[in-house]
Write a structure and sequence with these properties.
Strand content: under 5%
Low-confidence stretches: 288-292, 393-405
Mean pLDDT: 84
Distance between the termini: 23 Å
Structural class: mainly alpha
Helix content: over 70%
Length: about 400
């Protein structure tokens, strides 16, 4: 018999996941003389392969058997959603090019939060039958709307900051403003980034098999991450391999020195989904993280260490996500909103700590403070709404997984 869910504990787990996501890019700032594709792929091996298998083997029961017994259709669908989630990064750089960082990120994150949260219950036919008619469901949906409002306020804060930049900085930030193109690519990027949530939702049969093998409720989502992150690894590996060929940077994995003539990675070439972007932006704009150039020598050992640290930190966002989802009861779909809100909360806090907002106007700083207040409120509201819902019956707990067979 499963223990009674504790939605407020689930919110804490989601906050820890948001902390991991908002923090993962900081170690990358200490990597020297490597192109983006090199350190991203090294970190990605730890994010998408090593950490999921290591923790899955350690905390779930008989992980290889769970994977081998999962129906091929389920494995293929979950893997495909991982691939599509990776594709969400293909147009994210163009979103920044056409809309600017603040507006582009707000639009892409808004799509990711809305689609990732609402599409699964709509597809299952639960939105109008089990969620909207109940007080608890209405409170949860209100919390989702509050989160979207918080993302919008974050966009306003960023745009306020951009207006205060020098003309040269503005041109660098928004290279080729085109609202129509920007909305189209932001929509594609946001929806594809939400495919991670779709993959998690489609992994019900994997979680059911984990339960049958004796895995406790808290860790039943870990085998699902092995599959969906394998899909994400595929997309990212292929893109990084292409950039190595394009930029001539593949030598960097083993070379103790740099080579002249290696092409830099363009900003729009960076494969980065909407869920990664807030933490990356906070770290990229941080004051004082860049060390001296250091000549042609490459600190290989340090580069591998910091890339691995970033990769494992990235994985922990979904490690804690699965723990949080296990505590949300009937309305597990709301976990995606909690995840997005938590990412924004902690990336904003990192931005404050790393002095990203130093020198901005009082209006901009008030918008940043309002962003934090609204996003924190959204997580509390969603947690409260989940706590109002009665516990699922054993039949209801099994039905979603059976329905996906």
């Amino acid at each position: 018999m499963n223990p009674t869910p504790n939605p407020f504990l689930g919110v804490v787990f989601h906050w820890l996941g948001g902390l991991a996501s908002g923090s993962f890019y900081v170690p990358y700032r200490f990597v020297r003389k490597w192109s983006w594709e090199t350190y991203w792929l090294v970190g990605g091996v730890f994010s998408w392969i090593i950490a999921p298998w290591a923790l899955g083997l350690a905390l779930s029961k008989d992980l290889p058997a769970i994977i081998s017994e999962t129906p091929a259709g389920t494995l293929g669908l979950v893997y495909l959603f991982g691939v599509l989630w990776g594709l969400g990064g293909l147009t994210f750089g163009l979103t920044m090019r056409y809309l600017g960082m603040s507006l582009g990120m707000a639009v892409a994150l808004g799509y990711t939060a809305a689609f990732g949260t609402l599409v699964p219950p709509i597809v299952k036919g639960e939105l109008m039958t089990k969620i909207v008619p109940t007080l608890s469901g209405q409170v949860v949906l209100f919390g989702v709307l509050v989160c979207l409002a918080g993302i919008a306020v974050a966009g306003l804060a960023g745009m306020s900051k951009e207006r205060e930049m020098s003309e040269e900085a503005k041109r660098a930030s928004i290279q080729e403003f085109d609202f129509k193109k920007g909305i189209l690519v932001a929509t594609f990027s946001g929806v594809m980034s939400a495919c991670f949530a779709f993959g998690l939702d489609a992994s019900g049969p994997i979680k059911e098999l984990a339960a049958k093998h004796g895995t406790t409720e808290l860790w039943r989502g870990l085998p699902s991450l092995v599959v969906i992150l394998a899909g994400g690894f595929t997309t990212n590996f292929l893109w990084c391999a292409f950039l190595h060929w394009k930029n001539g940077s593949a030598y960097q994995y083993l070379s103790p020195t740099t080579r002249p003539g290696v092409l830099p990675t363009e900003r729009e070439d960076v494969l980065e989904t909407a869920t990664d972007a807030p933490g990356e932006e906070a770290a990229r704009q941080a004051v004082g993280l860049d060390a001296a150039d250091g000549g042609d020598r490459v600190p290989l050992l340090a580069n591998y260490f910091f890339s691995a640290l970033a990769g494992v930190t990235w994985y922990f966002q979904f490690f804690f996500y699965q723990m949080g989802e296990s505590q949300m009861g009937r309305f597990g779909f709301s976990s995606w909103t909690l995840h997005m809100a938590s990412i924004m909360i902690f990336s904003t806090l990192w931005g404050i700590f790393l002095k990203e907002w130093t020198g901005t106007s009082a209006r901009t700083k008030w918008l940043v403070a309002l962003t934090l207040a609204v996003l924190i409120a959204s997580t509390v509201i969603i947690g409260y709404g989940n706590s109002l819902a009665p516990a699922a019956t054993p039949a209801e707990a099994v039905a979603p997984a059976d329905a996906q067979r």
